[in-house]
Amino acid sequence: MSEQDISSNANTRKLNTYQEARLQNIENLRKFVVEAAATLLQEEGPEAVTVRKVSQKMGCSTKIIYSLFVNKEGLAQQLYLDGCKLLANEFEGTPQAADPAQQMLNLGETFWQFGQRYSSYYKLMFGGAFSDFKPDEESMHGTVTAMRQLLTVISNAQEKGLIPDQYDTESVIRIFWASLHGVIHLYFGGHLGDIQSAHAVYRQTLSLIVSSLLPDHNT
């Protein structure tokens, strides 16, 4: 191999190393921006998550954030996906029950707790807190992944003939999820009194849904 070839290979390696380092730095910077935005989201609520406030918290210019996320909606999408991971982790930690009705009750309770523990993420993801943000295909896929535990228990119950044939899987999911969302939204809107009263309504709603889907099981 000639000296020219060796020099060329060395330059190529340096270029690759530089590109890798640059990409790593960009990824790290994105992570820091998202962490700053997530802190604002949890401490001050969705209305506090603006490009200006995030840049102030990081001590950088808004141009840096715009270069990474294009706009506030791009940042919101990343927070949405992080919220999906949090929800997935909560579902993964749900106590397991052999009885599908009890497992649905357990998962429903987990969803309530997620809404309370991560209320700002919940409002961003499901409450329209960012009026200009609409979940894209990637975000919706993240939601489906987060709800995998619920999808599994419902699908298994259907395969065993425990859920009446008139319900298809998609319909069951929509009925279950929409009903629980409705209670949480009403609570956040101040329509169900204090948290204890709202939680009681939520549990009653959850029980009614499960008993209607699994009529041969006691809930």
From TrEMBL:
The keyword DNA-binding applies. Gene3D superfamilies: Tetracycline Repressor, domain 2. Pfam families: TetR_C_33, TetR_N. PANTHER family: HTH-TYPE TRANSCRIPTIONAL REGULATOR BETI, HTH-TYPE TRANSCRIPTIONAL REGULATOR RUTR. It comes from the Bacteria. The keyword Transcription regulation applies. Residues 50-69 bind DNA. Coiled coil: none annotated. Keywords: DNA-binding, Transcription, Transcription regulation. This is Transcriptional regulator, TetR family. Residues 27-87 form the HTH tetR-type domain. InterPro entries: Homeodomain-like_sf, HTH-type_TetR-like_transc_reg, HTH_TetR, MT1864/Rv1816-like_C, Tet_transcr_reg_TetR-rel_C_sf.
